[in-house]
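help with this:

***
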Amino acid sequence: MAVSFDPDLPVTVYPLTYLDDADEVTVGRTDTNTFVVLPADGATLLRKLADGMPPRQGKQWYAEQYGEDIDIDEFLATLDELHLLAPRGEAPMVANGGPVRWQGLGRAMFSPLAWVCYGLLVVAAVIAMVRQPDVVPRYQNLFFTRYLVVLELGIFLGQFPLILVHEAFHALAGRRLGLSSSLHIGRRLYFVVFETVLDGLVVVPRRRRYLPILAGMIADALVIAVLSLAAVPLHEAGGTRSAIGGYLLALAFGTVLRLVWQCYIFLRTDIYYLVVTVLGCVDLHTVARATAVNRVNRLLGRTDRLVDESTWHPRDRAAARWYSWLILCGYMVMIAAAGVAVIPAMVRMVGIVVSHLDGSASTTGVVDALVFLVLNLAQFVIAGALAVRTRHTTRAAIAA
């Protein structure tokens, strides 16, 4: 429904935050995490309207300032669609300048004293690994028990609190800046995932965004250090690893894999968002992939399949020329990780399953192998069932 505005009466604008960036300005509401990128002239006009200038006068001011006309009705309609204008008769609340919840904790977690403690913790872990190589993260640490079901469920369940720590560091680093960052529990297929919303970073000066982006990786490094140090005194005489110590080392190696996963820059990982922030890009991931596809299609002479590059943001287009090649590095890291850890671990698991089912194992070993196989096959069955269900739901929605 179109909204009409009296050109001679000021419009009511919600409290907004502005971040100037070259010839563009990011404008948004931190209370609702609603943000938009406007040209510098459009943002200046919006500031005038927010200060009480009536639309008709704003139109005249714009023409005098920039030497061209603007469709003020369309401009106001766009602002209204973006929920930057308050409904007629509504008095928007004044932005709260006080600290957000958990801001004090966020500042304490990233205070100078905290950084000193984090540094000492990592140094202590490195020293422990040098003195006791058994605690160095490696794929062999995954096998803390001979029972595959205990191994799989133990690592799977044990990762949840560690992932929560990763996301909590992101959220607290955002809260430290006064952002209403939030942590949610979501689902990917049948997996439970933790997600941190840091939309408010877009109106924070670029140099202050780096810590919230990297906070999760910092948390992972600290988790690895804590788990490794905790496992050191749990080693028995002769270097024999206790069950608890072995489990801690297994979780530490799982955290290493998650840290390596951040290097898969062909995905939207923390490192990807760091690169986007440094370069000031908008959607580098999409543009880089499209650039690579266009490059292949040009080589094959399939010009009819080229993606229109004129709609891309100039910074994305410039960075994608080399970033599309850098994506290959992410694939190389993934292949290397698979060769060093994932594939050897899978081969060892298959070997254990075979040894449990070759007739020489006890009943417990046979049951363990069978349950392990059922659990892993069930993952594919559930994923397939959910995919079919989603497809049917989508078709039903389109038909309705």
Notes: The two ends are 23 Å apart (CA to CA). The chain is about 60% helix and 10% strand. The mean pLDDT is 84. The first strand starts at residue 17 and ends at 21.
